[in-house]
Amino acid sequence: MKKSRLPRIKISEDTTLYVEQIAIGGFAPLDGFMNKEDYESVLKRKRLADGQVWTIPINLAVKRSVAARYTKGDRVALVDSSGSEMAQMDIEDLYPHKRRHAAEAIYGTRSMRHPGVKHLHQLADVMVGGKVKMLRAPFSQWPRYKLKPSQTRRMFAERGWRRIAAFHTRNAPHRAHEYLQRTALEVVDGLLIHPFVGRRKDGDFSSEIVIKGYKALIKNYYPKDKVILACLEIPMTFAGPREAAFHAIIRRNYGCTHFIVGRDHAGVGGFYDKYAAHRIFDELPDIGITPLKLQGPFYCRRCSRVVTESSCGHGDKERVQISGTIIRNMVKQNKMPPVEIMRPEVSRVILKYS
């Protein structure tokens, strides 16, 4: 591709992923980075200025020294870490990045113990808004699984699926998540398992382990004509309920009609009530996708199966908790997770690639 003579703004890896989602329709109705009016509206109302539901700001942050070179109406080239031009942007707005205000609105806290707040404070001082045109998609390690919204919609149509549930995860598949997915499959035509493969929290399983784990689960336990595995390459913000709604909006754009919301979706470090992500959807009835609000599953020794509080009356002494944290701690000690919390085929994959 011929190099343009436009002034250049270097962008982070996270920002290249935002550019891609804007370009392919994953972030519809956005056609660029937010101007101040949309940004403030999202922080205050969880909606764009025109009233459409949107819960997470999508911004391009630059240093003051960079912002000082430009004014509204300028066209710039967006270049990645290698210096390669990947997109062009027409600047429509420049406005200050108010970190404390944004942290409180997005995360409900200003604590630097929150990884999202910490990342927010690392961003530059000025936000640049404007429409974006992608020239080249960023490199991905997972091209086979990184489907566009147009591709998933076509696949759903080819399979005759009219009711499609999406499942978002950053974890390798355990029995609690399997329970949520199977519950959804009882009421929809098909399931899109859509793990994210962007910037992760320290200690998380690698994207390779998550994808290989799901391949093992689907191969050994799920009906082949009812499940599609793809990946979503965006960074996590750990914004709890706001991010749960954001994930639902993205899956709506990918053609899904339902979105599975479990316990503490996109939560971190005990910052959110375990079912806060359920309640946010009550504020957003026009979000355009139906949330499947499900209780947190656990294994009951008396019931001899994975259940929830809605279907099991036994007390805590009979419960075996299931979580990614518990499994990661076992794997660190090279221990095989018990069959009550993870399928052995998945456990073997995790131990092999950890």
Could you explain how this protein is built, in words?
The chain is of the alpha/beta class. The protein folds into two domains: 8-134, Sulfate adenylyltransferase; 149-353, 3-Layer(aba) Sandwich (Rossmann fold), CATH 3.40.50.620. 34% of the residues lie in helices and 17% in strands. The chain has helices spanning 13-24, 36-45, 64-67, 99-107, 115-122, 149-158, 175-185, 207-221, 241-253, 276-283, 324-332, 344-353; strands at 8-10, 32-33, 60-62, 75-79, 85-96, 126-134, 164-167, 190-193, 227-229, 258-261, 290-293, 298-300, 305-307, 319-320. The longest helix is centred in the middle third of the chain and has 15 residues, at 207-221.
Helices and strands in order:
Elements: E1 8-10, H1 13-24, E2 32-33, H2 36-45, E3 60-62, H3 64-67, E4 75-79, E5 85-96, H4 99-107, H5 115-122, E6 126-134, H6 149-158, E7 164-167, H7 175-185, E8 190-193, H8 207-221, E9 227-229, H9 241-253, E10 258-261, H10 276-283, E11 290-293, E12 298-300, E13 305-307, E14 319-320, H11 324-332, H12 344-353
Parallel strand pairs: 1-4, 7-8, 7-10, 8-9, 10-11
Antiparallel strand pairs: 2-6, 3-6, 4-5, 5-6, 12-13, 12-14
Helix pairs in contact: 4-5, 8-12, 9-10
